[in-house]
Write a structure and sequence with these properties.
Elements (H helix, E strand, L loop, with lengths): L3 E8 L3 H12 L4 E5 L12 E2 L1 H10 L2 H7 L1 E2 L2 E6 L2 E6 L21 E2 L2 H14 L4 E3 L3 E6 L4 E5 L5 E8 L6 H6 L3 E5 L5 E8 L6 E5 L9 E5 L6 E6 L10 H11 L7 E10 L2 E5 L3 E2 L2 E3 L5 E2 L7 H21 L8 H22 L7 H4 L12 E2 L17 E2 L2 E2 H5 L5 E5 L12 E4 L8 E5 L5 E5 L5 H5 L9
Parallel strand pairs: 1-2, 1-11, 2-8, 5-14, 11-20, 22-28, 25-26
Antiparallel strand pairs: 3-7, 4-7, 5-6, 9-10, 10-11, 12-18, 13-16, 13-17, 14-15, 15-16, 18-21, 19-20, 23-24, 25-27, 27-28
């Protein structure tokens, strides 16, 4: 059969694959998402969206829908012997930065069940003219100098210039490439997670039931914002095999809490897993890239997995767009692994630390301080950089009646000056001049399409040379 031709084939319709497809679609890149299942993932699994990912969703055009679909995390409530024993704060309070509006989406994650996040991203993809093909299981592929030909268990093959594997921790594509995963078991005890309907518990608290004297593990029941469901999480002794049926989950709830079995009225989705942390030995093989859980697998503690994954897509999307549509050199794609693999390794350490009680949820888990100062794409020419250094996240703020994130939003680069009247080269990008704004200090800043400062200087000397070859362009 003749292969269908496309620029990018994205394997997997989870948050990673859908976010990447949205980013590519708004850049005019032809991309096809294939998913071996017959529908989007139905569970709540990755429910916490960190402030930095909210900023990514702002840029992708879905943040209003995400905000409408979810809510803040409730305060934890410890239960003992059927009585409320006291509140438990899940997150350390944020330190006040002394600025107004540079981080617009708060200091704590926003709760949206993963299935709903995927629905929102899928709707945005459809709005942009993209599509997902369900029931498409990859069974093999061949690479050559010009592209990749992918075969499926059913249906016609696809010929793509690039392939992105976003097909999860058990990635078929990663295994076919022979790329190993290096990691460790975070916790040998299996964990049950289920989306359930429950009577007899309020929705104002995240209900926590510590281990009992009989040796049963902890259980936590969290109301899922924007739904009528609760997410039930329970730990089991090593070697156990949790019963995922309604009767099995009723037994767990009744044994470990004051709830009666019949208080669990429905199980809408259930799964079990052994927490582990693993990092792919490489994020790329030729024209095939790994992103999301295909590249790094986290403990769910700390809410880093989905967020790191979406930000993989955000990093790779603008680079593929620059090469495919902006005339950038293909060498730009090498910076995807250079920038994202160290970040993924760092986030794995944080997730593991939170799981083991060594790190608190707070500043380290918000992901606002992540950046690329050591990247080969980062150029800082000022002898004494201000608060924002090249490679850092570009802060938001409203200055002189202009909101910075409004100026940055879209697939383009943005040229920003703060506190300087220096002359600028002519670049095909929006330009914004601010008289002053404390979070940036003073200088000339070229902000990348993913909201990080690529180049910074006291003057624009060297800026034109930096932009050459990077596909620097304005709105599509």
């Amino acid at each position: 059969m003749a292969a269908v031709l496309t620029d990018v084939l994205v394997v997997g319709a989870g948050p990673t694959g859908l976010a990447l497809a949205v980013d590519l679609a708004r850049r005019g890149v032809d991309a096809v998402v294939v998913e071996r299942a017959g529908r989007l993932f139905p569970g709540s699994r990755g429910k916490g969206i960190q402030p930095r990912t909210m900023e990514v969703f702002d840029d992708l055009g879905v943040v209003d829908a995400i905000r409408a679909a979810g809510g803040p995390y409730p305060v934890g409530m410890i239960w003992r012997d059927g009585e409320r024993a006291g509140e438990h704060r899940m997150f350390d309070p944020a330190e006040e930065s002394g600025t107004d509006g540079d981080s617009p989406y708060g200091a704590e994650p926003w709760m949206v069940p993963q299935w709903r996040t995927q629905e929102i991203l899928s709707a945005r993809l459809t709005e942009l003219g993209g599509r997902v093909e369900f029931g498409r299981e990859v069974v093999g592929f061949e690479q050559d100098a010009e592209g990749v030909t992918v075969a499926f268990a059913a249906g016609e093959p696809v010929r793509a210039r690039y392939v992105v594997a976003a097909d999860g921790g058990r990635s078929t594509v990663r295994r076919a490439l022979g790329i190993g995963m290096t990691g460790e078991t975070v916790d040998p005890n299996p964990i049950l997670v289920a989306d359930v309907r429950i009577t007899g518990l309020d929705r104002d608290n995240w209900h926590v039931f510590p281990p009992g004297d009989a040796g049963e593990g902890f259980m936590a029941i969290c109301p899922l914002a924007g739904t009528e469901d609760f997410q039930l999480v329970a730990q089991f002794p090593e070697g156990d095999h949790p019963d995922l049926s309604l009767e099995g989950i009723r037994k767990v709830a009744a044994t470990r809490s004051h709830l009666a079995p019949e208080d669990v009225t429905e199980v809408r989705w259930a799964s079990d897993f052994r927490p582990r942390a693993a990092l792919a030995d490489s994020f790329r093989a030729g024209r095939v890239f790994l992103a999301g859980d295909a590249a790094h697998v986290h403990s769910p503690a700390g809410g880093q997995g989905l967020n790191t994954s979406v930000q993989d897509a955000y990093n790779l999307g603008w680079k593929l767009g620059a090469v495919l549509r902006g005339g950038a050199a293909e060498s730009l794609l090498a910076t995807y692994e250079e920038e994202r693999r160290p970040i993924a390794g760092q986030m794995l350490g944080i997730s593991t630390g939170v799981h083991r009680g060594e790190i608190r949820r707070g500043e380290a888990t918000r992901q606002l301080a992540l950046g690329y100062r050591d990247s080969s794409l980062t150029v800082e020419t000022r002898p004494s950089p201000g608060p924002v250094h090249a490679g850092d996240r570009a802060p938001d703020g409203t200055v002189d009646g202009v909101r910075l994130f409004d100026a940055f939003r879209g697939p383009h680069w943005t040229l920003l000056t703060v506190g300087t009247a220096t002359s600028l080269p002519t670049l095909p990008v929006p330009t914004l001049r601010l008289r002053s704004y404390g979070p940036y200090g003073t200088g000339v800043f070229l902000v990348r399409p993913d909201g990080y400062v690529g180049w910074a200087g006291a003057t624009a000397e060297g800026l034109r040379e930096y932009a050459a070859g990077l596909g620097v362009q304005g709105p599509v």
